[in-house]
Design brief:
With 299 residues, this protein is of the alpha/beta class. The chain has one domain: Alpha-Beta Barrel (TIM Barrel), CATH 3.20.20.100. It is built from 13 helices and 12 strands. The strands form 3 sheets. The protein has an 8-stranded parallel beta barrel, surrounded by 4 helices. The protein has a two-stranded antiparallel ribbon with strand order 1-2. The protein has a two-stranded antiparallel sheet with strand order 6-7. A hairpin with a 4-residue loop joins strand 6 and strand 7. The longest helix is centred in the first third of the chain and has 14 residues.
Length: 299
């Protein structure tokens, strides 16, 4: 049985691993594979599915694959950015229309969490996007509202006091949040969702990834040169994932994959339990020695 943790002050006891829907939206995956992928995730004990309006066809595919199992998982999506990040609309009417479209795509009459998707400080200050989420909650579109983003914008979002949860990047290659936002989120009672928790496993092939989305983490990891990344790949991924889940306040880590058998493997990676304090200290010490102030949280 996969470990579950309470997501801040919400009533959600979430599995420590959650499914991230970006990859299935970005890649051309057969519908049958996606159905197997999502159902195998639920069968493995995951009870969190996280997606976004911006993730191309992700919401549609999730709705088609697992809407019949809606009572078995918490459903999270994001708004503001849409259509593969080609369009942004932070107006009250725009955000509400996006949420209504997400409900249709996901074949559900409610969400467990709706999140603003990397909304900048200037837009947060305008207040329309936040007001739209409050209206969505009042209308029963979503039980809780959250902010998904990083660095100073995430800090500002926490300080508004408007949100129930924070989704932010935390990994061996992305540690700004550990000092900048995690303590503040915890003291505010916000649940924390870790995104990109294994830094996209950018080291896995030993070659610079072709996908530019992974290049920042590849470059950072080359400089960090952690000893444990020289170990067996499964062991190194286990260490990286357990590091993220050992950070105070983190309830769940969102992992994306297109391989249906990956969920059992990922669950096995956590079998050793939390990463020990000595290894956490080594990873943190190396980060503090090497990282500079340009190594901010990655969207």
């Amino acid at each position: 049985m996969m470990e579950k943790r309470r997501l801040g002050k919400t009533d959600m006891d979430v599995s420590v691993l959650g499914f991230g829907g970006a990859e299935i939206g970005a890649q051309q995956i057969a519908r049958e594979t996606i159905t197997q992928l999502l159902n195998s995730a639920l069968d493995a004990g995951l009870n969190v599915i996280d997606t976004a309006s911006a993730y191309w066809t992700s919401e549609l595919m999730i709705g088609e694959a697992v809407s019949h199992r809606r009572r078995e998982f918490y459903l999270l999506t994001k708004c503001g950015a849409t259509d593969g990040f080609s369009r942004y609309d932070w107006s009250k009417s725009g955000v509400l229309s996006q949420i209504e479209r997400s409900l249709k795509n996901l074949k559900t009459d409610y969400l467990d969490l709706i999140q603003l998707h990397s909304c900048e400080i200037a837009e947060l200050k305008k207040g329309e996007a936040i007001e739209a989420l409050r209206v969505a909650r009042d209308r029963g579109y979503s039980r809780y509202i959250g902010y998904s983003g990083d660095s100073k914008a995430a800090k500002y979002a926490i300080e508004t006091g408007a949100f129930d949860t924070l989704q932010t990047s935390i990994s061996i290659a992305d540690q700004e949040a550990i000092e900048l936002t995690l303590p503040l989120a915890k003291s505010s009672g916000m649940g924390v969702i870790a995104k990109r928790p294994i830094a996209n496993a950018a080291w896995r092939t030993g070659q610079k990834p072709a996908e530019s989305y992974h290049h920042t983490y590849w470059d950072r990891l080359k400089r960090l040169d952690y000893d444990f990344l020289k170990n067996d790949l499964q062991n190194s991924i286990s260490t990286a994932l357990r590091f993220t889940l050992s950070q105070d306040g983190v309830a769940t880590a969102i992992v994306g994959t297109t391989r249906p058998d990956r969920w059992r493997e990922n669950a096995d990676l956590l079998a050793e339990g939390p990463l020990d304090a000595a290894n956490i200290a080594k990873i943190r010490a190396r980060w503090m020695k090497v990282a500079d102030n340009r190594w901010i949280g990655q969207v």
